[in-house]
């Protein structure tokens, strides 16, 4: 077991190293002219509040711990007693090995921890517990959830129209979007599509920058970035990070930037003002990034010459690959676990550790006088609906998998149906053929609507990111998603519907055809609405498709064709399942449309027979004749409204569950 560094080393660290840096820092701040000095305030004492700071956001956290419940196996601690601050005009980097809690700390500070976690301690904004007004803070997540069919310019412009208030004209919003794109160095990729699976678009680094662009459109004063350089080479990382660091002091506003970062190059490291170094959720170091090297050296882990300091820090505290590290720390003959203990102890006994809570307390005291942020406004609800509908419409148009592929397959299937059932005639034998044809169309063609599920999941990912950042109202998303799908669903109902209706020769008359395609359209809308609900609960392609297919299969089973309504076992299959299965209303409506008021003749079995459509409906298919086919289609339309509202409710409830 290795011992702690010699007292003299810590003493030196305290007396001449970190302490000196702190003093210098304080002196520097005190000399900044402060407009409140004359007002008799005690701000001069701390000196960190300048004219510009007054506009910025001070974020402080004290004894912050996060645990995650593991059910009967107790709780797992992710963050332990962290104290720190982030100030306007500064870039705070959160570093540490993979799984040490960087994203969790960022999520806790941004107030977006998962519901299965428990947080203790205090997080204050400008010295108070408050929710920041819309547009004051932004969070760039690790995954780039972007609409892959849009160009860079379109993605940023749509976002500007959604996020910026209606008081700004369309051209002003466009100008802001273009300026932001240039700020992030994306001018050359402006007209390139973002691209996703299968379609090569912009690079990973450019995607990261598009995500950042979208979040800084409102010029937030507090910016959280979760691994903004993940997947980038060192040159691209430097480029992105230097642009981010520049944002800290732009447009006369000092921004507070907090970023988690994996492995910065020495050039990137120099951009950080403060560093929070974590290991297994514990603070190994918090303070100026420039003093971290000295801290490691004085703790007994000097950075070898020509080695990148951040590489050295991470290598020293990464215990995931114990063996390699031991070899790497050759000569020190201590395990990584022990090295971490030494560093944590060294930090706890340093003067800096004592200073951090004092600085937090001072920030809280001095900022407490500030008024809450003035509320910035969004685009109006109507503008949100309009812009989201347009964006979604363009996306559906460009994404071949959304509707076009389905349309092609439906047309092929409809031609197949038309050929198999070609000209079925009006004889007695045609009754069964008509029923089979209708059942196939109302079941299989609507069942295939679950094929659009992967596109729904992509939409949901984008929606989730935008919703968490408060870009627009959930209601606007639900309305726009419904409206933008209507023209495509009409297309996939009318064209294949016409082929499958006229080639076999179903009931003559435009009014009957109109009812038939309206019913088909309503069924597809119902299935899509159900799949949106599945996508909001199970955001995974495979599981979602399986769940969706399972639901459709069950409803199909009890729809009243494979087993006649009166033969369905009670209570579960008949009540409630048969009553809530949309197939019941689709079958009955389409049957009534086809048979009601018709007569079929037969000369078989020794003479002419006549059977009326009503007899077929009532006696053969046990249709409910107490109401007309319009009642059935009304129920289908009601189901669309019900499922869309249910989707809205689920999303709203998810919002409430999040802390
Ligand atoms: N909601 C959660 N439920 C269960 N475990 C969680 C949850 N959030 C975080 N964890 C666990 O906490 C640990 C830290 O996770 P976190 O994502 O904060 O690490 P990280 O430092 O950001 O990692 P990386 O750099 O690899 O992204 C991990 O072991 C993770 O599995």
TrEMBL record:
Keywords: Membrane, Transmembrane, Transmembrane helix, Transport. SMART domains: AAA (SM00382). Residues 59-305 form the ABC transporter domain. GO terms for cellular component: membrane. The chain crosses the membrane at residues 403-425, 437-457, 477-503, 512-535, 541-564, 633-651. It is a multi-pass membrane protein. It comes from the Eukaryota. It is found in: Membrane. PANTHER family: ABC TRANSPORTER G FAMILY MEMBER 11 (PTHR48042), WHITE-BROWN-COMPLEX ABC TRANSPORTER FAMILY PROTEIN (PTHR48042:SF14). Belongs to the ABC transporter superfamily. ABCG family. Eye pigment precursor importer (TC 3.A.1.204) subfamily. This is ABC transporter domain-containing protein. It comes from Carya illinoinensis. The lineage of its organism: Eukaryota, Viridiplantae, Streptophyta, Embryophyta, Tracheophyta.
